[in-house]
Amino acid sequence: MSNYCDVVVDLQSGDTGKGKVTHSLLKSGEYDLVLRYNGGSNAGHTIYHNGEKIVTHQVPAGVLYGIKSLIGIGCVVNIPKLIEEIKMLNDHGFKTDGLISVDYRAHVVTEEHLAEDGNDTSIGTTKQGIGPCYRDKYDRKGIRITELSYHQSRDNYFTLVDSLPFLKDARVLAEGAQGFELDIDWGDYPYVTSSHCTVGSVCLNGVSPRKIRKIYGVAKAYETYVGTKDFGMDCDDLKKIQEIGQEFGATTGRPRKCNWINLDKLAYAAKVNDITHLIVNKIDILDQVGRYVYIEDFERHDAGTRLGLISEIVKALPDNVRVIFSDSPHTI
Ligand code: IMP
Ligand code: MG
Known about the structure:
binds magnesium ion, 23% strand, nine-stranded parallel sheet, four-stranded mixed sheet, binds inosinic acid, 28% helix, alpha/beta, 332 residues
């Protein structure tokens, strides 16, 4: 059997619509395993399945299609929340039996991590204990999920596995969480999350670099960011974008700060991730606001029309990248 790994990776600060892209790609029947490769319950993926809005945080989108899903070795797991989420999916009629696996070496988010992160004021975290959990992991004081003893309660919901045999023989779709600007190394440090949000992270989770086939970068036609740093929002048009684009966090409900798309940053993120495809979402929101502004060389430019902005975005990218613009919240 031919096997490969395609990747969905966010080129901005999260919330670009990766969940929707993953969901659309899965319809092709080209995949038999979905791998979540970084982060934890800080992520919020909004998915429309058969017209119904579903928000997931830790469970990879594959389960909605009856496809096996793996929470990779590089993720951190909030077990009670994961179980809650699986129950929610079951209540919506999704069968998850035997579909959800977690690498036995993934680290666990504890009550202490949650309490500590709950006091964060400097970064504006999602308060999901992510930073303290990864810190303890790198400090070699963390807890791997396999060390916990209450097998009984969780076994009905998910299975602990060694990722390698799973990944080796499968056609994998790897879905990332957060985004380039939030990457611990490549992002706008210290206003970042504590995991690797670039394509390299997929291999850290056990996918052979030689298996990587297509890399779908995902961006919005404008940018959003949630956290304490200053970001856009200095004109009425950006406020309109926030309102019309419904830019409020899926995990915390916080308003997302909005800014115009930065093409230099987009091009850089595209290079680091060596994308083969770019999916640009939500250009329809700019249609409704009637403004097509972008940032290049630290300055704002007015592209004038939708087509003008599209051509600037395409121009900013390497020639071999296939660019898709999507107006639909449901498909690409
Ligand atoms: P943490 O990941 O909760 O530690 O938060 C660190 C930074 O990443 C904060 O600015 C969060 O708002 C941001 N962040 C974390 N996860 C997401 C996400 O899924 N979407 C958007 N921003 C996120
Ligand atoms: Mg999100």
